[in-house]
Amino acid sequence: MSISHLISNKLRAGSRFFFASIGLGLCFNLIMISLILFNSIDAEANPIQQDDIIVTDVVKNFDELGHGTLLFKQAKQYKKAAQLNIDVVMNITGMINRVSVTQSFNNTTDDWQEGVYVFPLPENAAVDHMRLRIGERIIEGQIKEKEAAKKTYQQAKKLGKRAALTEQERPNIFTTSVANIPPHETIKIEIEYQQIVKYDNGAFSLRFPMVVGPRYIPGKQRIKGFSGTGWALNTDEIADAARITPPVLPPGSQRKNEVSLKVNLDAGLTLERIHSPYHGIEVDKQAGHYEIQLKQKTILANRDFELIWQAYASDTPKAALFTEEMNGDTYALIMMVPPTVEKTETLSKEIIYVIDTSGSMGGQSIIQARTALELALTRLKPGDRFNVIQFNSFTSKLFNHAELVNSTTLEQALNYVRSLEAGGGTEMTNALHTALANQSNDNSLRQIIFMTDGSIGNEQALFEIIQNKLGHSRLFTVGIGSAPNSYFMRRAANFGRGTHTHIGKLDEVQTRMLSLFEKIENPVLKDIAIDWSHVNKQTNNIESWPQKTSDLYRGEPLLITAKADQLPNEINISGEVAKNDWATRLELQGGKNRQGISKLWARNKIATLMEQKRDTEFESIKQLIIDTALEHHLVSKFTSLVAVDVTPVRPQDKNLESHAIPTHLPAGWNHSKVFGQPFPSTATDARFNFVIGLILLFLSTIFFLCRLGYTTTGTEEIESCLKQRPKYFGFAHSVYCCVRNINSDSSS
Hints:
Helix content is 27%, strand content 32%. It is globular. It starts with a helix and ends with a helix. The longest helix has 38 residues, at 3-40. Among the domains are: 3-41 and 687-747, no CATH class; 318-341 and 525-631, Sandwich (Immunoglobulin-like), CATH 2.60.40; 350-520, Rossmann fold (3-Layer(aba) Sandwich). Helix 3 crosses helix 8 and helix 5 (428-436) runs parallel beside helix 6. It is built from 14 helices and 37 strands. A hairpin with a 2-residue loop joins strand 7 and strand 8 (137-140). It is of the alpha+beta class.
């Protein structure tokens, strides 16, 4: 055989081996892609494609939408959602805020529509009224058990009657559904609730949330069948994920959910200051009260509204009593501020800082969190021990164990914090386990400062971790950003025997963190007990909520709601502060009559009962919650408000199209961090799975192509081996042939 012929054969064999390697690598790549998709699909945030979802203005040019746009499919066409306007009126009297929220659903299409809107309310809101307004007609909503209310609504919807349904998904997330909105008409839903305003360090405040931020949805087993309209699929960990993840408008969208807001404030005190940190307001002082409105007529519903008002120091209240008589019972709201105890000797402590670096923390939020954490690190004293934990799709620690504070460890921590960036999912479970682990047995002071926006959907599972693993630690939560999950922040701090604060913009980091330090560095009033023994024996039927009072930090008031046949003249309150017993007597004389105190009492009772573990005994607790909610006309996890017009208006030959109202992304959030990938970072950890997949794809291709670098002398052996390939497992046999040849070449 001539040399040229030999070379030609070798080249042909080499080319065959080259293309075989390419094919083998591509085959391997496809298998890896399938495995990665299979691993990610359970938590994916693809838009749910349902026949009964969506709206107006057919989208024909997908290039105009931008990456990550959430749309819904109906009749094989993608459509955008309809317009919603919101009007809010607050009436504040003393510590009670009565709020009316009117949602206007405007059907701009030629079709009959159903609107579905997922929206936030304060986590302590007692929702007790819902009205369906059709022109001048008003239909009052009736309270029913959740399933019965839903059945009533569905029947009315099917019969072509106008109907509205208000349901609670979380204490701070609700859903309004409105059926049979006629073409080119508007239906208004008016929801009313009552709440206790916050009082802390002499200042009153309230927060009105305006948007439900995208929630992280853990769980790998998809649960089929759901009634929600959200982008997330229900999982084995969050069975209602589709109900708490409303679609989100992309950047640059012309569609706007706008809010108008007015406040009538009767504080009962001469006020030194009224301000709103995130929105411009105008204050008009009237005789005995203040009228407050936004400087702009309307604002985007993309961040919480906060109002703060403060009396002169000489008028700062130390106690207050509000009562209401109803059905032979007296309901009371009691507020008392314990006296300030001077700071004692500072003890060395262990402090664990936990910072959320998930995708939802992108933009301004991660900057605020880093700045707050840097400030917190500078408060550490010699003798303290500390560690820093960050979490997104994964959890990592700066040190293996808490380290003593010195110039070296502090510099390491500051450099570490400054390097943190946002991205990935919000796997908070592992972060909590890590923060609560490695506790010593000496009951020394151990504090955890947890910084997050709380954009998760598995709150109950996280609360149970805190309850079971807290030990002698205290957990303090810092809500970050324009629309944090305040329900999680408050309840986690409550279970963690700590307190919470909120940072909504960079300018607030210094003042709000210093306020938190002032609380955690001063003595706490704990083991609080209330003695009602002064009640007459024949009228001693007292039921107070919460039954176990949380520890109180400097400036925080004791708040109690009670129901009694007759209130006693006084109560005794005791506790422990700075290792000393503390007690006081509070007279329950005078006070002011206020409507709605019974609703607040019932709301506190329901909230406390909902904190119970979901075990076999919870069914009896559930029934108690239902009975309380029905008696006091309150929306709860198990009761809903439904309103139905008696007259059918939609002809039976006309179809009803349903649509989910999309929400804005919270102000300051980075859309590309959350929705820049096919799967939202805050919603899933799929992006990381794809990164791993791409690396594996690259390595697998390199692995096969680099085989040419050894020798082509083994191509005949490979071809002979491949001819013996069995009918099944052909791919595995091909890999075996190549690897065997590599080993043979290496040996020679």
